[in-house]
Every structure is written in structure tokens, then in C-alpha cells.
Amino acid sequence: PKSITGNAPHIVITAGPTREALDPVRYLSNHSSGKMGYALAAEAAALGARVSLISGPVNLATPHGVERIDVETAMQMHQAALRLAPQAALFIGCAAVADYRADSAAEHKIKKTDDSDTLTLTLVKNPDIIAEVAALPANQRPVVVGFAAETQDLAGYAQDKLQRKGLDMIVANDVSQQGLGFGSDENAALLFWRVTSGTEQLAAPPQPKTQLAALIIRQALTLLPTQSSG
Ligand code: C5P
């Protein structure tokens, strides 16, 4: 049977978009559906792992056996991720984290004014959650898997992200392809992971996200240090 033998690893997964408040009624966000991250969580739990799913606002049911931590903002996701990651064996950053947030959310609804046709918002950078997890000290650092959604030079940008963020593996998908990626039930991906002599890769053809999730989890688990029992 396909299951994880021995000690069940703790896997932490981020999923979905984040929502950055501009004022009490408005926010900045993106089109992430959370489907890929939820499929990863479902697959990992089905294999017997202990799964913590840190989720932005999505319309999806919590997969069976998964502990779900709901967050809205990148700062909340950052806090939850850095609380859970040091005890985890594997961290998968699948969330579409907003790169920027309002420098300060307005306390009251921003009003339209008659004297100007433009409105200027000042945004500040959010922390790079996955890069911080990857930079944890060795005794607290899980194996780290990231995602890269690109519209051009998939392999180049993905390998650059793998190095720059200090990841162990990256799953790159071409979001310019119709019917794949954002919001869709299908996805294709290029996987790159580090080996001592450089990187290895695998091209996964278009397939249901549930099936791709199984392939990603399987590959990620091969990167975990083998645990000796006793
Ligand atoms: O740099 P980019 O946003 O394309 O990187 C995508 C990867 O980094 C994903 O794994 C995503 O979850 C993660 N990420 C993050 N925190 C951010 C931005 C991206 O964890 N602030």
C-alpha cells in the first residue's frame, strides 16, 4: 500500500491567496484558488503524514485529517509559518502571497474626492515567507519546496528562484497556458530539485491537480533525510 512508513512526518503547507486591507471594506489580492495547495495537503494526509495547512481565504473544504489554520494577510501567514516550520520535516509554500501591503490600512473607508482624479497608495514589501523558512538554522530547518508561477522562461526563472530563496525543490508552472494553473483543476509543471552535483529536473505533463499533487509529494519525500528508528 502507498503509505509513509515509520514516524509520520509533519508537513506544513501554505495555500491560497493573501488579502491585504486598504481600508475597512477594500483589499488587494489575487486569483489564487488554493486548489493546488489543498490537493497537496489531501495527498500528504492520505499518505499518513501529519499536515498543517496554513490557508488564505478560499472556497474549499478542509481535506480529511488536515489541521487548517486560517489567515488573511501575508503578515498573519508569515507568523503562522514561522511558528510551525521549525518543528516540521517538510514545508511547501504553495500560497500566492501578496508581494506588497498598504503601508497602513486606512482606519475609515477611503473617500472619493472631487478635487483629484487620481489616488496614490503607498505599498510596502511583505516578508518572503518561504525564504525565511529556508534560512532557518539547520537544526530547525525543514526541507523546503516552493512554487513559481511564470509567463515566460519557466526553467530560467524557476532555477533562479530555487537558488535565490535557498529552496530544496521548486515546482514551476506556466500560468500563461489556457486551462492550466490559476483557478483550473489541471496543471502542468517542471520540477527542479537540488542534488549534490547540481539540480535534477522532471517535466510533468498537463494532468489533474490531484494527480500532480501526488507526484510532487512523492518527489518531495525523497528529499527528506532518512530517519533511523530507535
Ligand atoms: O517570488 P515568487 O512570489 O514568485 O515566489 C513564489 C514562491 O515563494 C512560492 O512558493 C510562494 O509561496 C513563496 N512566497 C512566500 N512569501 C512571499 C512571496 C512568495 O512564501 N512573500
TrEMBL record:
Residues 10-220 form the DNA/pantothenate metabolism flavoprotein C-terminal domain. One of its GO terms (cellular component) is phosphopantothenoylcysteine decarboxylase complex. Residues 11-230 are annotated as: Phosphopantothenate--cysteine ligase. Its EC number is 4.1.1.36, 6.3.2.5. It catalyses: N-[(R)-4-phosphopantothenoyl]-L-cysteine + H(+) = (R)-4'-phosphopantetheine + CO2; (R)-4'-phosphopantothenate + L-cysteine + CTP = N-[(R)-4-phosphopantothenoyl]-L-cysteine + CMP + diphosphate + H(+). It comes from the Bacteria. GO terms for molecular function: FMN binding; metal ion binding; phosphopantothenate--cysteine ligase activity; phosphopantothenoylcysteine decarboxylase activity. Binds 1 FMN per subunit. The keyword Transmembrane does not apply. It comes from Vreelandella nigrificans. The keyword Transport does not apply. One of its GO terms (biological process) is coenzyme A biosynthetic process. Its cofactor is FMN; Mg(2+). This is Coenzyme A biosynthesis bifunctional protein CoaBC.
